[in-house]
Amino acid sequence: MPRPSDEDLFQSSTMTFGEHLEELRVCLIRGALGLAIAVLIGFYVARPVVHMIEEPLRRALGKYYSERAIETFDTWQPRQAGGPPLPYSRDEIIDAVERHGMSFELREVHPDRLRRVLDPVASDTMVLPSPQSATAGQPVGAAAPPASAGKGGPPAPAFSLDELVPMLLWQPLSRDPRVSITTLSAQEAFGIYVKAALLTGVVLASPWIFYQLWIFVAAGLYPHEKRWVWLFLPISIGLFLAGVSLAFFFVFDFVLDYLLEFNEWLGLDPDPRISEWLGFVLILPIGFGLGFQLPLVMLFLERIGVFDAATYASQWRIAVIVIFVVSAILTPADPYSLLFLAIPLCLLYFGGLAICRWVAAAEGKSAGDQRMATKASQ
User: Fold this and answer.
1) Would the pTM of this model clear 0.70, i.e. be above it?
2) Whose CA is closest to 315, among 328, 331, 290, 298?
3) Cβ-based neighbours of 214, under 8 Å, separated by 6 or more
4) What is the DSSP-derived secondary structure letter of residue 182?
5) pLDDT tens digits for 266-318?
6) In the chain, what are the domain boundaries?
7) Would you give the DSSP letter of residue 167?
8) What are the Cα distances from residue 226, in Å, to 77, 136, 358, 360?
9) Which helix (H) or strand (E) holds 165?
């Protein structure tokens, strides 16, 4: 829908194809220089950034293994009826796990072996034999020889499995090796450091990069349209940072919970690597930040006459399908991240439609007031 004054302004705003390429080259060089400076700053803050990136994964792993610990307690049964129970109640387990950040592993040991560990000096001189290992004529307190001694082959166990006593091995959840995030090579840590600096640089340089992008767009607009660029620029930066924040501080927790639950459903223990997680961190927030530009793109296309509000309203079903397809491309292969991007984008699409209608109505009202003022003056 061209504006009435476009033809009058066209001659003063024309640019050749070569001039457009030159403008693009200048904007790209400026954006790259700004990104390089931001990445250099990122190298100074990359270490705390790596710890901040690790935190959602550590939190999700801690929650996963805490829930598994309580589930292990609830499903454990003694080997025989009337056997020794667990040494803690369920309330004590929940208090230690949820309130004090502890984790445990369930082990079953024989009392004699436990005495050897707790008092090795006494166990060298006195071992209380089990009834199965007692030998006639042997003094009380003397260790019984293995049943297979002198016969060759491995020694037979000196106790029955039904005599095993359950015990819980406690440790702080933060020191649990299952919650630690691993690297598998010496150079991987350096690669992680560089990627964290790049991620920090992209976020820090995003206002400058968006500024250069909109400067390039403004170079091809009519003078009366360039004012929209200065309105869109701060909103564009705000939407990008809002998308990044939504992904990092909200979406990660749901996505990680789903992926870890899927591991549990398959009976697999997760052993995440920080480099793979960092690749996930790089893709998801940037995808969210770019996707959140949708209402501005809609308004911009409406302002320059490519689409209008009526077209947006009539083609909303196709737009929703396109949003879900693009969300599937911009996010990893899990339903939570797709839905957490697609649903806000659908809301932003209808928000962009409302903004287009409001701007068009305000523009029509302003034009009508101007005509009425002109008639009144005549």
Assistant:
1) no
2) 298
3) 229, 232, 233, 236
4) B
5) 777 777 777 777 777 777 888 888 888 888 888 878 877 788 888 888 889 99
6) 6-44+183-377
7) E
8) 74, 104, 19, 17
9) strand 165-172
